[in-house]
Amino acid sequence: MGKIGIYGSSFDPVTNVHLWTASTVAHRCKLDKVIFLPCSSKRKDKQLNTTDEHRIAMLRLAMEDNEKFFLDDYEMKQESWNIYTHHTMQHFHSIYPDDEVSFIMGADLLEDIALGKWKYSDELISNNKFIVMARNGIDMLKTISRSPLLRNFDDGTRFHLIDKGLNMEISSTYIRDELGKGGEPRYLLPEACYDYVKKHGLYQ
């Protein structure tokens, strides 16, 4: 049985922190592969700043030298009304029925689930395992203990909580803002992606 992590995000653009996070998770959780899952521009809860095609192209450039990193555009192909993490995880469980498939997310998303902001949250939590990365100011243990949904499924293996041990919170938003204002975020994203952004005039 293999171990697979599903890493969903906008990746608008993909940053070095995204890659470092995926690498850290793969190492500490002994994952055989990390599947990068860019969200669709059709989602009504996301306001993206460039096209699906550009984000896919940058992800391919970013992960080409890591044999554990894979790209999947599953959510991009779905109709906007049918894009829910519960359904997405059902899809990956059907593809990898003999493997342990976990959803990788930040502690901020764990808080959102605890607050009832996600559709199909009961089904999502009851049928999946989660790798949760620390975020500044969020106590992951308290988030779980305060939520009836989360704590009642916390069997010791449901949530793998990871404190990164290093404060790296540079976001895609920061990079876009820098580019939009004539800043220089060159070393915050992979060099090939930086060159791609400049070549195509993205985020200007």
UniProtKB/TrEMBL annotation:
- Keyword Iron appears in the UniProt entry: no
Q: Which InterPro entries match?
A: Cyt_trans-like (IPR004821), NadD/NMNAT (IPR005248), Rossmann-like_a/b/a_fold (IPR014729)
Pathway given for this chain reads: Cofactor biosynthesis; NAD(+) biosynthesis; deamido-NAD(+) from nicotinate D-ribonucleotide: step 1/1
| Alphabetical UniProt keywords | ATP-binding, NAD, Nucleotide-binding, Nucleotidyltransferase, Pyridine nucleotide biosynthesis, Transferase
What GO terms are given for molecular function? ATP binding; nicotinate-nucleotide adenylyltransferase activity
Q: Can you cite a GO biological process for this protein?
A: NAD+ biosynthetic process
Q: Where is the Cytidyltransferase-like domain?
A: 6-177
Q: Does the keyword NAD apply?
A: yes
Catalytic activity, per the record? nicotinate beta-D-ribonucleotide + ATP + H(+) = deamido-NAD(+) + diphosphate
Any signal peptide, and if so, which residues?
none
Q: What is its EC number?
A: 2.7.7.18
Tell me its family: Belongs to the NadD family.
Physiological role: Catalyzes the reversible adenylation of nicotinate mononucleotide (NaMN) to nicotinic acid adenine dinucleotide (NaAD).
What name does the UniProt record give this protein?
Probable nicotinate-nucleotide adenylyltransferase
The protein's gene is named: nadD
